Amino acid sequence: MKIAFVLMKYDYGVKERGFSYEYFNVLIPAEDVFGKENIVLFDFLSEYKNYGKAKMNSLLYDFIKSEKPDVTVFCLFKNEIDENTVLKLKGMTNTVCYFIDDPWRQEFARHWIKYFDYFSTPDFYMLKQYQSEGFKQVIYSPFGFNSSIYTKKDLPLKYDVSFVGGFSALRKWIFNLLAKEGIKVNIFGRGWAGNKSWLSIEEMVNVFNQSRINLNLSNASSYDMNFLFYSLRAAHSIKNIIRTKKNREQVKGRHYEINGCGAFQLSYFVPGLNIAYEIDKEIAVFDNPYNLADQIKYFLKNDDHRLTIANAGYERSLKEHTAQSYIKNLCESAFKGI
Question: Distance between CA atoms of 148 and 46, rounded to whole angstroms?
């Protein structure tokens, strides 16, 4: 089976930022499963920046016509792809729209569903919603973790508590709450004071492996009154809240990545996480930020309990949640007609 991927090769199309999430977690796992010789890539965002929308879409059509893939997987960004281009590919290849954020980008997702032969969702409850509406072409495809990148290294522990991720007003407020309880969080990611760039993938994996507790914090909006009052006093936070379009939570790639490194994870709860992992046995969660400090202190004192959860989450991840297994199912389902 030959598979084409239409995705941005670089993070938001900026080469200096390194490869994109889709490149690391969709394309490379497909190469691992089906062989590099059976995978072809069309970097639509680079072509879009170089030639504009019309020319890029023409090149995309010619690319698929020439390569003749059995399945073509699209990871859309904004409005770079022309709907008519997708329609013209029908009969030439089985087209799949790989959605990443459809739970909170429903208007975007609903627009594109009708143009593709198949589409995916990473969210269990969105899967059930689509199925209840009669969509038979939906494929359940959680993010999982790239098992060739996110690995257990058994490195010496270096950090008590760490967090990897970009700045958000909600996260900043939570860190302030923890600081008042005497808990220092080692923060890695763009947008934080003193941090001007992302960690490399290897550095991030090392942080997961070297941390007693890896925090996984939401970057959505919150209606907690204390948080809102805090935001009104911080210009950076107000700006961040205004820009935030995310109004619904979902299980993210980070949930799988931390556990896939055999690391201990203390995460916010989101519906569906309990389907991926058994709460309190394979992953730890907090139900509100006000009791987070107490949970951190508990797990720092109870090494055996922390390691038991981390090891169980790791075993579950290897068994069920590799990106390789999910992309294999996605492509084979589209090829066979589900």
Answer: 26
Give the pLDDT score at 182: 97
- Per residue in 149-166, pLDDT (tens digit) is 999 999 999 999 999 999
Q: 């797990």: which residue's tokens? A: 299
Task: Write down the architecture of domain 159-320 according to CATH.
Answer: 3-Layer(aba) Sandwich (3.40)
Q: pLDDT, tens digit, for every residue of 17-40?
A: 889 999 999 999 999 999 999 999
Concatenated DSSP letters for 266-300? EEE--TTHHHHS-BTTTBEEESSGGGHHHHHHHHH
Taking a C-beta distance cutoff of 8 angstroms, is the pair 267, 174 a contact? Answer: no
- B/e letters for 304-318, b = 16+ CB within 10 Å, e = fewer, are eebeebbebbbebbb
Structure tokens at 192: 């934080």
**290-313: pLDDT as tens digits:** 999 999 999 999 999 999 999 999
Q: Hey, do 3-143+323-336 and 159-320 end up sharing a CATH topology, with the first three levels equal?
A: yes
Looking at domain 3-143+323-336, which CATH architecture does it have?
3-Layer(aba) Sandwich (3.40)
Strands 39-43, 265-268: pairing is: unpaired
Query: Where do the domains of the chain lie?
Result: 3-143+323-336, 159-320
- Rounded to whole angstroms, the Cα distance separating 257 from 205 reads 9
CA–CA separation, 196 and 16 (whole Å): 13
- Among residues 331, 143, 126, the alpha carbon closest in space to that of 113 is found at 126
Q: Give the pLDDT confidence of 172-183 residue by residue, as tens digits.
A: 999 999 999 999
pLDDT of res. 223:
46
